[in-house]
Design a protein that fits this description.
homodimer, 235 residues, alpha+beta, Arc Repressor Mutant, subunit A, Chorismate lyase, 2 domains, six-stranded antiparallel β-sheet, three-stranded antiparallel β-sheet, 7 helices, 10 strands, 34% strand, DNA-binding, DNA-binding (chains A, B), transcription regulation (chains A, B)
Chain lengths: 235, 235
DNA sequence: CAACTCATCTTGTATATACAAGAAAATTAT
DNA sequence: ATAATTTTCTTGTATATACAAGATGAGTTG
């Protein structure tokens, strides 16, 4: 047996999720439905669903069924995701200022990071995220236009770029680096920094099944922002 | 049935690991052994082992058996762990300089972070980790003496503090914060920084089942060190 | 109409069984 | 003694079966 049956069923489910066919909170086939679709025993179908549930990709509820998990519950480092939620969770006022929305010609490093040809057009946005009207983070983002045609037409006051992108091209992979930098003058203005101070910079590249979606640079003043991580061994 | 059998077996295994009874890479009972010990079917014993394996706590190998996983393979952010390995993986020369090894009286913030009484004695060490004889990271660590009596007698040239501690009091939980700071003068000297530059500071607190083990502060120059993270959705 | 009961669909737990395949030790043959 | 074979122990895959328990809607009863 080259590839086990339970693994085939897992792949089938993952493909449907990654293609966007099954969205967040959608119901996936029940154990009995998979049993007849794939001509396997219930225990085999169950194994596929259980393992994807343990991996955080599905959620199950006795009596109701099995559903595609929401991406929020994904993983530790990706908590660096939605700064709007983070601010609201602190009972602070969230707002954002959109500084740049444009289509530019990709110079070499950006083209390479996005996996497109040099001098081809890519989208660029610069957004300042505020907590109680004070700048907290600058988000500079370069987007592969092939995977998000309407990017420049979005209103990012109501929906963050990350939310928009993950709805249009379900992401399958993300890579981060975190470093400490000294902001340049432009960045100081954006962040309203009168005295120079070190900043935390997160670079994030995200992939979908069709390729690299976007490349973001998130810069926050060291005095106002820190990253948290938490690990438990047990359970 | 209040608590399922497979869950009881999982607890049994976890307790043995957390107590230090079963160390890294030790063998755990086979499916058949658990079957007779707990009077369950092989499938139930198997479920306990499989789920702990999926959780990264055990590793299994067909024909050989099931073993306690090494903590290296634990999780994404904990990769911030062993800087010695990181340097060696880059084919660079690793060395370290031990600056301080002492027993001090805990001032309030340190006592609170360690969960001990103010003015009680705690251990403190300061170590500089070098890559090719250049300072890469300063590790300042405060240790709860109740959980690591021989801490000051160790030779940390051969064994890192983290390795020593996790052998003596198996860790069950870790919490990190990452931030960007400007180093003070003492830190600049330790890191050999002539010009001020922003640094990445990681604060890590680690727990064992008996309480807070230690509290570490890891500082690296922004120009020489960055943190990496990687997330995959698939599989 | 409202409340209750019941049938049905869902996931959850547990067992007994069968065969496959990798690894290592014991046995046998050279 | 060494090499090849066999046995045994391990995990891996797959099925059929049984009963428990949560959720939901249909039908019955008051």
């Amino acid at each position: 047996m080259s590839v086990p049956k339970f693994a085939q069923i897992k792949e089938f489910i993952l493909e449907n999720i990654q293609s966007g066919e099954w969205q967040e909170n959608d119901r996936v086939p029940s154990e009995n439905e998979l049993t007849s679709q794939f001509q396997v025993s219930r225990m085999t179908a169950r194994r596929a669903l259980s393992e994807l549930t343990d991996a955080g990709i599905l959620t199950r509820s006795q009596g109701q069924g099995t559903f595609v998990a929401s991406f929020k519950s994904q993983s530790s480092l990706l908590e660096i995701k939605n700064i709007a939620d983070e601010v609201k969770a602190r009972n602070s006022n969230y707002s954002c200022t959109i500084l740049v929305m444009e289509s530019i010609s990709a110079i070499a490093p950006i083209a390479i990071a996005l996996g497109v040809e040099v001098d081809s057009h890519v989208y660029r946005s610069v957004i300042v995220h505020n907590e109680n009207e004070q700048p907290l983070q600058v988000e500079e983002r370069f987007v592969n236009p092939a995977l998000a045609k309407d990017y420049l037409q979005q209103d990012f006051h109501s929906l963050t770029p990350h939310e928009y992108l993950s709805q249009n091209a379900p992401l399958t992979e993300a890579r981060h680096t975190v470093e400490a930098i000294m902001p340049n003058q432009e960045m100081c203005e954006w962040l309203n920094l009168y005295n120079e101070e070190p900043c935390l910079q997160v670079i994030r590249r995200t992939w979908s099944s069709q390729g690299i979606v976007s490349f973001a640079r998130l810069v926050s003043p060291g005095s106002k922002y820190r990253l948290g991580g938490h690990l438990t061994f047990k359970k």
